[in-house]
Amino acid sequence: MIKKMGYQWLLRRLMAEREMYQTSDLVPLLAERGITLSREQVYRLVTQPPQRLSMDTFVALCDILQCTPNDLIKPEVVNAVLRKTADGTPAAVPLPDRRTVIRRPGQP
């Protein structure tokens, strides 16, 4: 089975921890580092996990927030089913492969 990976984008949380509550607060800080993004682009960057992000922008965000890339992105497995263990903690279990069954009218 192929392990499907995803990630959590933690930019909004890091901004809040640094008392930056307006997405537009990032626009001039990025511009100081040579990154020109519109207010709308910055809003999307903060509120939605980006599918593509230039390394220049990524490094600028790390500099602005004084963090590492690991602080901004948390990798996670997205195709696992969570099942609780005997002690109540969640345990990741891969999704089972299921075969598709096509039934025609009149067939059991």
Specify the structural class. Answer: alpha+beta
Largest β sheet strand count, sense and barrel closure: 2 strands, antiparallel
The CATH superfamily of the domain at 5-76 is lambda repressor-like DNA-binding domains
H/E topology pattern: EHHHHHEEE
- Rounded to an integer in angstroms, the radius of gyration calculated over CA atoms is 21 Å
CATH architectural grouping of the domain at 5-76: Orthogonal Bundle
Q: Supply the number of helical segments.
A: 5
Helix percent band: 25-40%
**N-end to C-end Cα span:** 31 Å
The number of strands is 4
Physical arrangement of strands within the biggest beta sheet: 1-2
Provide the residue-averaged pLDDT.
Answer: 86
Highest-level CATH class of the domain at 5-76: Mainly Alpha
Assign the CATH topology of the domain at 5-76: 434 Repressor (Amino-terminal Domain)
* Poorly predicted ranges: none
Give the CA-based shape.
Answer: elongated
- The fraction of residues assigned to DSSP E strands is 15-25%
